[in-house]
Amino acid sequence: MSDKYDVIVIGGGPGGYAAAIRCAQLGFKTACIEKRINKQGKPALGGTCLNVGCIPSKALLDSSWKYHEAQDKLAVHGIEVGKVKIDIAQMQKRKDEVVLQLTGGIAALFQANKVTWLQGTGKLLANKQVEFTPNGKDDTETLEAEHVILAAGSVPVNIPPVPLKDDLVVDSTGALEFDSVPKRLGVIGAGVIGLELGSVWARLGAEVIVLEAVDRFLPNVDTQISKEALKILKKQGLDIRLGARVTGSEVKGKKVTVSYTDGSGDQSETFDRLIVAVGRRPVTEDLLSQDAGVSLDERNYIYVDSQCRTDVPGVYAIGDLVRGPALAHKALEEASMVAEVIHGEHTQVNYDAIASVIYTHPEVAWVGKTEDEVKASGEAYKTGVVPFAANGRALAAAEAEGMVKFVVDEKTDRVLGMHVIGPQASELVQQGVIAMEFGATIEDLQLMVFSHPSLSETVHEAALATDYRAIHIAQRRRKK
């Protein structure tokens, strides 16, 4: 006899746990299957993001930045300190406490919303049946549901030339667990993860070399912003080498030598530790039986429509399993959308207004189209760019690097994109998200009153700058 639910969610990450909670709120009998065992040996919800991704990395980024500030940034404020030391064990302990607090909070939310947490693995079978294998057991149970939501997430991509090796050659998960600062650290991949993890250990004293196969830095970011980011990060000490294609690696004792080719030919570097951060792939193996009926694309992502329906009626897939950016907040919104669609409502995620963030210092954040994309379309557009150096609040805080940029449709005056590198970019970019979600014109932002002094004034000035109306920067009119 099989257990019957209204909704079964496979995966307990941001997409999965949010889907389960929202379904339960809407009155559905809901179960969530999650297999993760945390480093303390206990079952844990929260997926990659809370356990070994977004949250622990931000904890380390914040701790390492405070150390860097105490060591190098306080004198300008007239604050003198003695010799600054870093206690890696305490830094890691704090990170783990933050993770446990948040993952434990999800378990409490499940209990409050009467979500059944099934600790183990789930596989979708034909006819919306789910095979459940409890952790530590070989016996399986067959569960039935009216609706199934697939939310198994993603895992780091490994590359054949550089196999992982103990704590010497690690992926993003291993990079969060270093018990000491490596003297020389290699990072393969200059994407979001590589730059964030490289920044953590560079601030703490490591010599960091980042090897990136493509020739352009942050190719998905607006060119003006990515050039500024490259300049700032290099100034901070990250040795970023573009067009460096890794061809092999060799471990000898406690060292790893990486071979790569670039425009000058064959090269090699030897490191004390090496991080492989070349992207993530969806967890679709062992998730679907051959007769489940769910279609995959050529990259093993699950095919879904705009409301995350798969080819099987009543089966949905969300988050890193499907098209679009692999972002926790995207998964969270898809989770709510699917729950409400199941409930009979017509809800839609606006995929054009999802912001992306790189949590370096300064942060890099963007939403909508880049200037490169709009220019390539041939449509008439205008831009407004204002540096934080023109902002009183940024100067007072000694955080004046970077800029805010708007890309605007010249005919309709609609905001097409917003791009920020600078202090609190992750927060400021949300103003662009709100503007785009409400179909605002750039004039709407120009007419708003922004507090003075505030970092948000740079958003206002950038909006004004699109029509050569900025007050605090000198502008030359663009030639037609």
TrEMBL record:
Its main location: cytoplasm. The keyword Oxidoreductase applies. Its EC number is 1.8.1.4. NAD(+) binds at G189, A190, G191, V192, I193, G194, L195, E196, E212, G279. Binds 1 FAD per subunit. Disulfide bonds join C49-C54. Its cofactor is FAD. GO terms for cellular component: cytoplasm. The active site is at H452 (proton acceptor). Residues 5-335 form the FAD/NAD(P)-binding domain. The active site is a redox-active disulfide bond. This is Dihydrolipoyl dehydrogenase.
